Records
---
Amino acid sequence: MEIVPIKDRAFAMFVINVWYVLGGCYVYAMGLIFMNQFGWRVIVLLTAVPTVVSCLSSCFILESPRYLFVCGRMSELSDTLARMFKMNDKVLPKYNLGEHVEESRGSIPEIFEGDYFRITILLAQAFTINAFIEYGAALLLPDMFVYDYCSDTSLFDDDNSCYMSNSEYLYMLLIGSVSLPAVLVAYLTCDKFGRIRTMLFSGAVTLVGLIMLLICINMYVLVGEAAIVVFFSVLQNCALWLYLPESYPTYVRNAAVGVVNGVGKLGAALGSLITEIVAGSSIRACLTLYVCLTAYQLVCIYLMKRDAVGLRLDDTRAAARERSQSQAQETG
């Protein structure tokens, strides 16, 4: 987000998430085409291809000029700006960076101090719950199709087949494909209605969708309910990822994003583990857990209060302090 103008941040997140969604659809498509014929080893090889492409592509990504400036790496900054303008076929205007005031880089303890303590704790909880449900649901949804969810059959029932059929892979592909329009809606709504309102609305609908999943009528209704949950959870996730880097100035942004995202990954691991344990006894018990966590996440998002639409990403401690004092005077 540091290399994107304010007005284009939502669009940049839209483009990034489109590829994320396409990656998920790619996995289910490969399963539909190859899994039952060639087995899981072929699937692993095929899904490794995008990873290789991603690693190669990262070699061509330019460093953030904002980050280089804060670090005082002026020579690299000038080269990066020149390359950016050349890539976009634009003429680099004359500029004066002024005198750089050396400041130490931000540290992890700083995101738990002052104004940042509250938002860091709330974001960490929101990301943890988001990852917990996302990764847990990735395991739970196939189980809901493979096993007779409407009868709440145990996942450890030996009478049930533990393999997905082609029709079940197709169901997962259809459910995953609704993420694409969700990303588009996130792009259209995050700037118009704000990040927090988008997260609250999408989270509320996700909560309703999870409650609906507790009542299973038939598999076709289940697919529709799951698609609703996936659509609005992806919408919320896009807004949450857009909000995170906008909540911190450059000097401490890397530490904040790393810590919050790292805690979220812990939630992903716990979600995968706990889902398998709880769903082994009852799928409805697992869904009930998701409902409770989503309700708590909504409380965390509501307490964030301060939106980030059009927010300037202040570069230095001095700028951050001035912004904080200004806000205190306005609210005081």
---
Amino acid sequence: MAERKWKVCLIGSGNWGSAIAKIVGENVQHHGDFENEVNMWVFEEQVDGRNLTDIINTDHENVKYLPGIKLPSNVRAVPNVVDAIKDATIIVFVLPHQFVKRICSQIAGKVAPGAVAISLIKGVDEAKGGLELTSTVIERELGLEVAVLMGANIANEVAKEQFCETTIGCRSDVLGPVLKRAFETPYFRVALTHDVYTVELCGALKNIVACAAGFADGLGFGSNTKAAIIRIGMMEMIEFARMFYEGVRDVTFFQSCGVADLITTCYGGRNRKVSEALVKTGKPLDELEKEMLGGQKLQGPPTALEVHKLLAEKNIVDKFPLFRNVHNICYNNAPGSSVLTGLVGSRL
């Protein structure tokens, strides 16, 4: 009897999801242990009078979220998430973290036996006594083994096949190489680590720091100030991880998921861009999100909110002045200029 092949499904089809669909769709055709067809769940919407799924399946392009990039013909857009995951053995979660629990509730009990998941989602949720990582939510709700992928990966650059690196956190020495084959290309290099929690924490916390970088840009500060924000932000990320999670390995912060992703996000990500606009225009974050992101969601502000709740509960808010300042600017109407408050002498 022939060995069962891995069948990949993507849940999510935004900018990043579509870029990843391009990679996975191409890779499965070159590895004999994968099924050729890749389903991609697409939230159905109308674009110029046509269903987005029809456009993707006919024109092989996500004209709304990744225009100008052709997707492989074996990537099939599916509007029903239960239909999309049918028989899938690798489920790739790549949608805003706010929707994860709802999607899990729709597919619970319908996932194929032996399936695994990998989360590309950079966000956290509030939980009793702490924070809950997205991988933990998926694991609990679906009973699956869950790996994570995070890195300095701006979707449009990845889709254009510009060289970059990423990090996969996976506890299994068997599954890790399978996932590496699914995602790695000559221009998208994958490093494997067992340090799942740190990989995922980096992906979430760096968005808070990116907001601070955006505030600094909006105030007209230069490279020196941004470099200081990045360094202080990295130190707060490391201290937070050590304080709340066991088994954190410092070397992981020097992988693509750590310092590289932090630098990239502080110069080119959506959280930085919208935060700069917040300082310059004074408009509310939700208004700027709608105006500037074309349906994408901010991750930095909601992550700052959840982190702040935990730090306040532990009475240690002031031990993390950069995280505190971002929260106060986003949610307490503090001026953008307060982004540097308390940072003098911080973590020298």
---
Amino acid sequence: LGMRKSSPLRFALSSILHGPLCPPLNPKNVVIVSKVTRLEREHLSTNFNQQDLATHLSLRGIDVQKLQQSHNTHKSSLNEITTSLQQENISFRVISIADVQQSDLINSDLVIAAGGDGTLLRAASNLLDSKIPILGVNTDPTRSAGVLCPIVFDRINNKQNQFSILLDKLRNGSYSLNYRRRLRVRIEQSEGQITTLPNLVLNEVFFAEKDAARVSLFSLSVDDEPSDIVRSSGVIICSGTGSTAWFSSTAQTHVDTVKLILDLAGVKNTSPENVDKITIQLNDRLKYNFDEKKVGYVVREPITNRAINCNHRLGIAQKITLRSLGWNGMLTIDGITQIPLGFGSRVFIDPADDSQMLACINN
């Protein structure tokens, strides 16, 4: 496979000099990581038959018809993927998102995440080899925005053979690759031993007390600067990919705040359009490219008073170090993996190497 002999640098130079050209991709061994639909989760958790489950869900105020429709839409999309692969005599396996492991993806030459962004994040956390590309397919765009899933099946116009057309594009090299930088996480427990987590971070790391209603207490160091003792609702640390996700929602300045500041500064007769423009410029400064070796951070709702301050609430850095100063801290990676952190545990977060970037196929 030509892609295995290439590198992120080669593709970057190719994009600059010639546009997003990629070598022909002729997958022989495909792994499809499929989401578990809400209906399937309800079946697994209750073990009811179909009629009893419908009654049970209705009593909980859940629209069973919409749940079934979403389930059917996902299964229809998944069936189109597998049928297209069968017609092309391409070997494949379908693995549930609940069961996928790193060993399932090692010998593949293409990973397809069939679901939404959550499915791709789970698949990506088990895919450590940048030579194996991943393709995100949004199987139900009515229920998922699927920002990381560029392939969306058109069910409204009942278009046929959409995935077969995509396979032709891959074979012809008519696609592009986004190499997304991921973050490496190392943990030093109170005994002093440092462990590198096997899971790489595509979006963000979140640290806070396990009990969301309790104040999170930790020290935070940005680029080896002196640590701050922080009391807050936790801290989000993100990659370039994650800088447009939860981090962006938490860090953004709202338009009403900008309007209030302009009024207090004595700026008169500012049009709503200009206020919107200023707000967008203010928030865009915290977004950066998905391949950059940077780490974004934002402390949520820091407590500040005469005794406590938060000198590093928000910004972009090269690395972050935090130490848990509470007894029930929890580190959450991409909303998937949770790691308890006791008092004194330290976490080191920095960009991973080029060899650990995620190769995402972009249609």
